[in-house]
């Protein structure tokens, strides 16, 4: 009897080790429980809430949902760094007050320039080169620049709880997509390495490229023609255009994700899941909602989340860790 009991104890111990918590970076709160419950209900064969594998499309915002967007979105930081890098080769740029503001780290003037100024900087740093050249520029920036607050490379700053969530969903047959206001070519450089999401499952803001034959073959040159901003009401449009499926789950963090969450929640065929990451941790990351440092305002989506029963993640309370300590140790 004692031997049998000992064997059972050892077997249970082995089973526990073999089934380590896939969401170990999450605290055992209601937010985590809601995720696990929905996944279990959605994948249980014969259940009334079962979702077939070929319908398990889930969408994630990137900035503020999978990695930080404060104090600036990382792509805007890339734009500013690129202007500084290229300025010596473009003496005429120094005649431009906006460029001088960038070179002098005068962010107030840059912000005051608004969307018109941003589009100008985008044109200077995101067009006129081949797609391969742009990819190399982003890769070089990622390898050689660090976030000032954490002293970690930008591609080391994916939220560990969300990366675990992506893995957990894929292990249960879900197909994960990024639907973000960030540039599609910018995000595709790091999406596979950071999140396990291949380039073809990344949708973001874009402009039309120009194809041409060259002496060495072919090329696509980046332009600003037909620029499409994949944010707010444009997100459902982009989902329809690129995915061709209505998602069964959506994950965001701001009012710019509200329409994506609404579009997903209105799926007539399946019990859907919505989640909003609420930035409440000023010590480990940032704390904001209606007054973000730069972008990511969360105002209209928060009360709607409560009304619709979407899960609201309190970063301070619900996450054990924010960044992977093996990649970016907390100071």
TrEMBL record:
Protein name: HAD family hydrolase
Signal peptide: 1-20
Species assigned in the record: Scandinavium lactucae
Highest taxon, organism lineage: Bacteria
SUPFAM superfamilies: HAD-like
Entry annotated with the keyword Thylakoid: no
Transmembrane segments: none
Gene Ontology terms, MF aspect: hydrolase activity
Alphabetized CDD domains for the sequence: HAD_like
InterPro entries (UniProt xref): HAD-like_SerB, HAD-like_sf, HAD_sf
UniProt keyword list: Hydrolase, Metal-binding, Signal
E.C. designation(s): 3.1.3.-
Name of a matching Pfam family: HAD
EC supergroup of this enzyme: hydrolase
